[in-house]
Write the structure tokens for this entry.
Amino acid sequence: MEFIKKTHIDFIGKKNISFAISAIIAIVGIIGIVRIAMGTANMGIDFSGGTAVQLKFARPVPIDRAREALARHGMKEANLQEITEGNKLLVKIGKTSVAQGNAADQIEEAFRKELPGNQFVVESSTEIGPAIGDKLRKDTLVAVAISMLGIVLYIAWRFDFKFGVGALVATMHDVLAMFAVFFVLNKEVNLLFITAVLTIAGYSLTDTVVVFDRIRENLHKNTKDSLKTIFNGSINEVLSRTIITSLTTFLASAALFFFGGEVIHDFALALLVGVAVGTYSSIFVASPIVEVWGSRVKASKA
């Protein structure tokens, strides 16, 4: 199955443009990670500590009215998330003046007083202390760092150290891109987002390995052409497969984004961004880095 026939696109020749774009993405992503490490980004209660209460009302509740009801009871900083299916409302309170142990009770009391004609039930109530949130944030950054190290060791063992570095940079690029998008859009960073980040790291690595496999195969078969020619030819050979795989994954993530509900909306958004960026990095980041390194090594030996 091929969406496109044999192509002859000069991907390596566009490396300067792709490197510049990737550098900008990486800088924004690093800023986002620094803000997360400092706890000053839009942190979910998983990391910052707080209370989350999900309520199911008998009738729909306009989110503006719900926000006003909470504000009148001293909860102006409450984050509201409307779940249209079943007239549900998710209320999250992080760093507020409300005592953590009483936050859930105060949320219920506020709605009982402000919306007396609209009965509701509490479907779930979760509380996370700030100490636990701080530990989760640190452990998350460590987990991402360990996964990056594992990737470079695996690729270096399977291919070559140059390929390992290329795969590592490309995967880090994808991770930074996801952090950059969520930072710019001021999306909440929570455990679901971190799950998406690690998922995309594995997906991107798989796509990169496919490209590297073809490059290694062609390097053994063709010893006369330049590295640029071999790399371009290899990428073009697997381009159709890459597009089909990425498009299938993208459509599945899009289905979650549009029809999965509010609870996993941001998670699906992270997957969409990750799939798109992961496909880009396999072609325009990982391979050009290895080609540039290989060409310089080859030139130094000449």
